[in-house]
């Protein structure tokens, strides 16, 4: 999935009590609904597929930040119901026939299309659709509603994600220079879910395996981040995944003295909650 930097440093306090500026620059985009066609599907692993969407509706599409995301609308019993935007407002958002989930924009190139990395699972319409995805099928998207441009000038980057946050983490690795001091932790089921080195932007990733444990039930990521040195220079920490794990990471970093203008954390999903709103204060 994919996601915004919903927990950032807005109105963060410095050590002397002054308000620190938000290090994340935000650029709004007009809400735009698009009807698109699957042009390609690539298996990146047993539980991750890369889906490329194309169509004339992609004219004017913008996605500039590593965390930019779109709402993806899937066909339901009534077929594909598309969001309707009028005068900048999503007017049919309460229509029960709309089936949607949020996904990080992996890449966008007008000559290639909109690329999304989507997790395969057997619960919910999104995971089941992804398992059967094939060229020629149609989806709809809404957004991105804006781009979040985090700082790229820190001395050390500490990144952590599960499968749902992996596309955004890969975006980070693509944008950071190979000389950057990056520590990246990713939680997956087992070795089969690891990506090859050439997909990691020249950076090293430490893979943590659940070994059959259900997603959202381990402390692999909080433990990994807790054991990561922050160094003596400036730090930017980012994490995305199951809400309880992300909250534990955030709490642990704060306890180690990392200021809120030095991290962005987002709970993309919550165990046992369908269609969790990652924009909510609970994320």
Automatic annotation (TrEMBL):
Database matches in InterPro entries: FAD-bd_FR_type (IPR017927), FNR_nucleotide-bd (IPR039261), Riboflavin_synthase-like_b-brl (IPR017938), SIP_FAD-bd (IPR013113), SIP_fam (IPR039374), SIP_rossman_dom (IPR007037)
Domain of life: Bacteria
Domain FAD-binding FR-type, residue spans: 31-151
Gene Ontology terms, MF aspect: oxidoreductase activity
CDD domains: siderophore_interacting
Record Gene3D superfamilies: Nucleotide-binding domain of ferredoxin-NADP reductase (FNR) module (3.40.50.80), Translation factors (2.40.30.10)
A Pfam family of this chain: SIP
Ranges annotated as biased composition (Polar residues): 1-17
Ranges for region Disordered: 1-31
Stated name of the protein: Iron-chelator utilization protein
Native organism taxonomy: Bacteria, Bacillati, Actinomycetota, Actinomycetes, Micrococcales
């Amino acid at each position: 999935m994919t996601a915004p930097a919903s927990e950032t440093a807005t109105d963060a306090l410095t050590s002397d009590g002054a308000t620190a500026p938000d290090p994340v620059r935000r650029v709004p985009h007009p809400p735009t609904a698009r009807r698109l066609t699957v042009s390609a599907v690539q298996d990146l692993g047993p539980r991750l597929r890369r889906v490329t969407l194309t169509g004339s509706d992609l004219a004017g599409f913008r996605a500039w930040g590593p965390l930019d995301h779109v709402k993806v609308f899937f066909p339901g019993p009534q077929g594909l119901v598309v969001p309707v935007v009028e005068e900048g407002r999503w007017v049919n958002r309460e229509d029960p026939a709309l089936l949607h989930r949020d996904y990080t924009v992996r890449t966008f190139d007008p000559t290639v299309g909109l690329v999304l990395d989507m997790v395969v699972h057997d619960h919910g319409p999104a995971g089941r659709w992804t398992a059967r995805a094939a060229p020629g099928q149609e989806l709809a998207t809404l957004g991105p509603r804006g781009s979040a441009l985090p700082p790229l000038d820190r001395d050390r980057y500490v990144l952590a994600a599960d499968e749902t946050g992996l596309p955004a983490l890969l975006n980070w690795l693509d944008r950071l220079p190979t000389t950057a001091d990056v520590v990246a932790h990713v939680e997956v089921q087992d070795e089969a879910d690891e990506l090859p080195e050439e997909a990691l932007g020249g950076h090293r990733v430490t893979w943590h395996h659940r070994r059959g444990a259900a997603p959202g039930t381990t402390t692999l990521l909080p433990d990994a981040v807790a054991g990561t040195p922050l160094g003596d220079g400036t730090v930017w920490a980012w994490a995305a995944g199951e809400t309880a794990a992300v909250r534990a990471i955030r709490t642990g970093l704060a306890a180690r003295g990392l200021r809120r203008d030095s991290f962005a954390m987002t709970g993309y999903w919550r165990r046992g909650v369908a269609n969790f709103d990652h924009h909510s204060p609970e994320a």
